[in-house]
User: Which sequence fits this backbone?
């Protein structure tokens, strides 16, 4: 018995020491993780800002100086119990700024979620053939349910090999099916005119936000020009392809997997230009996106949008005559099926985009309906494009308040 008690007492310090070491290692790991998150938040938040991280200190100090001047000089507020009014405001102002930032980000992130359909109302999203268990040859991955956190994201895209000559790719699916080409910014299929690219401008030293990435061609092209590019896309598959292309071209691009309206991670008035190439075809309520883009853009910065022209999904070539014929009413607001794909797109009209931009504090300064270059690579051109444009491009400039 004495020997057992002695051994137990000897083992107790050893166990306590191991517990203390374990807690110390966990604490060091937590501190390192916190430091890493803190550094990444500062780097992301103030990337592209003239004053950089110093603005994190200058902003509350400048705001405090304004309050001090107004209340002590203009209103001549006295001391509070012998204490400085400046100190009185500081101890309340700085915690409030932190709480305000947290509440604003949480509210924007929450409002960007899509509310589920009521039980008695069917979903507006058409069912995907890839998820149908009755479809022959459907793999296990096609019927696998998605994580609940992806409820507000788009359908899984149909990956198309552009080198496969048997695969017909519609212009409505652009940039899907286009070859990876980071030599220049492309706003639509078969658009090779340099004047169109000048709508976006040079990326040198600018902070660019791209909504929807395709295969990353535009992001890589802008990063090569010296831009600091942030990409947001609702498709994890597209992001994986774009990230691989960016790494292969040795450029730095910041990728985010989120709904196009979930821009809470970007501070206000930080972006020099925003680009949305055919990505808004997946968005029914573009006003949500426009409001968030208006928030993050600097005053007088541009928002460049390209979409399928309404005539592109209304007309087709007439086999009996040398011309085109209409297949769809201009007033039909139902989603448009994309040939060769199980997805469908929103039929945005030019007037709708124009009006929504204007209501979101943008002034439209360019509206183009360019012809498609039949000799351009990609195989998107068809006889119908001799009669109708495939793309319309609209550019809005954020107005000052």
Assistant:
């Amino acid at each position: 018995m004495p020997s057992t008690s002695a051994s137990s007492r000897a083992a107790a310090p050893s166990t306590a020491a191991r517990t203390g070491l374990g807690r110390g290692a966990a604490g060091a790991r937590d501190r390192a993780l916190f430091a890493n998150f803190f550094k990444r938040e500062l780097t992301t938040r103030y990337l592209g800002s003239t004053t950089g991280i110093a603005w994190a200190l200058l902003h509350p100090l400048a705001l405090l100086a304004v309050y001090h001047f107004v209340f002590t000089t203009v209103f001549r507020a006295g001391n509070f119990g012998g204490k400085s009014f400046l100190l009185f405001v500081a101890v309340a102002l700085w915690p409030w700024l932190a709480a305000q930032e947290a509440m604003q980000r949480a509210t924007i992130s929450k409002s960007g979620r899509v509310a589920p359909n009521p039980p008695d109302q069917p979903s507006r999203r058409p069912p995907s053939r890839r998820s149908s268990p009755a479809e022959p040859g459907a793999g296990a991955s096609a019927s696998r349910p998605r994580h609940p956190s992806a409820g507000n994201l788009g359908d899984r895209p149909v990956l198309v090999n552009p080198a496969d000559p048997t695969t017909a790719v519609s212009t409505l699916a652009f940039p899907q099916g286009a070859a990876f080409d980071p030599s220049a910014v492309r706003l639509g299929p078969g658009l090779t005119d340099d004047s169109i690219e000048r709508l976006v401008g040079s990326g040198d030293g600018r902070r660019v936000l791209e909504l929807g990435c395709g295969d990353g061609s535009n992001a890589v092209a802008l990063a090569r020009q010296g831009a600091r590019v942030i990409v947001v896309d609702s498709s994890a598959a597209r992001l994986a392809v774009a990230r691989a292309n960016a790494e292969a071209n040795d450029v730095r691009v910041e990728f985010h997997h989120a709904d196009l309206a979930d821009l809470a991670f970007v501070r206000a008035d930080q972006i020099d230009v925003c680009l949305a190439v055919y990505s808004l075809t997946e968005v029914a309520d573009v006003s949500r996106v426009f409001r968030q883009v208006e928030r993050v853009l600097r005053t007088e910065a541009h928002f460049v949008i390209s979409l399928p022209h309404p005539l592109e999904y209304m007309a087709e070539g007439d086999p009996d005559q040398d011309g085109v014929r209409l297949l769809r009413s201009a007033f039909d607001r139902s989603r448009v099926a994309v040939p060769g794909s199980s997805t469908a797109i929103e039929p945005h009209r030019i007037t709708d985009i124009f009006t929504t931009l204007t209501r979101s504090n943008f002034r439209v300064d360019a509206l183009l309906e360019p012809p498609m270059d039949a000799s351009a690579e990609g195989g998107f051109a068809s006889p119908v494009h001799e009669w109708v444009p495939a793309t319309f491009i609209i550019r809005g400039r954020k107005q000052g308040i």
About this structure: Residues 2-45 form the longest helix (44 residues). The chain is about 35% helix and 15% strand. Residues 158 and 341 are 7 Å apart (CA to CA). The chain has two domains: 25-111, 167-398.
